[in-house]
TrEMBL record:
Keywords: Membrane, Transmembrane, Transmembrane helix. It holds the Pfam family BaxI_1. It comes from Gandjariella thermophila. The keyword Metal-binding does not apply. InterPro entries: BaxI_1-like (IPR010539). The keyword Nucleus does not apply. This is Membrane protein. It comes from the Bacteria. The lineage of its organism: Bacteria, Bacillati, Actinomycetota, Actinomycetes, Pseudonocardiales.
Amino acid sequence: MRTTGNPAFRNLPTGGGYGGYATFDTPLGAGYGQQARPTAVERPMTIDDVVTKTAITLGLALVTGALTAYFHAYGLALPALLVGLVVSLVIIFRRTPSAPLVLTYAAAEGVLLGAISGLFNAIYPGIALQAILGTFGVFAAMLVVYKTGAVRVTPRLTKWVIGATVGAFLLMLADLLFSLFHVDTGLRDGGPLAIIFSLVVIGIAAFNFLLDFDAADRMIRAGLPAKFAWYAAFGLMTTLVWLYLEILRLLSYLQRQ
């Protein structure tokens, strides 16, 4: 049974009539196999729906991020973090897709990233643009890799990516806890080990895109209603945010050398 390391998809219930795929199986519960099939007023989702919803979500995040950085509204970072966290949990555990919630999450993440980017850019001029270009470069590269079949999403690859994702987050959590006691693990101090760790995390985030693309494909093949494209947009957004922050961190390390 395939799953995904992306919490936006992984926490959706399983079962129903979608081949046991844990990523997008049953957001509507045990009766999902019957309830989620398109009705007379619900057309099935297409790749255009996923592209459009993702573009809207990312566009909103870019706008709110740019405005936050332009007006130096860095004090909004903490409220935006809290709003994004709460809304993301609601989206993950909600049984039906909600465009307003996904857009609220995107706006909050944009404010948070705009504040962080503004602070980094003040120290290392131009680093935010480099991180944005790097993020979309990785995204485009992994999309090509997926569409050409250069790397196939197999159960073994899925398990490896999920395991690597969980391992990376546990290491980051451990580093955070150690830092509270003024213990430096070397994972986030900008040294050689930190650079290597960031490169590994970026690679893991990039491979998560393959799982996200595969999940969206399976949603489309299952004939889910078009509104479920918002789930795909939300999932891709979470991976993009993670990747962007890690690239931004890596670039800051390299600037110090």
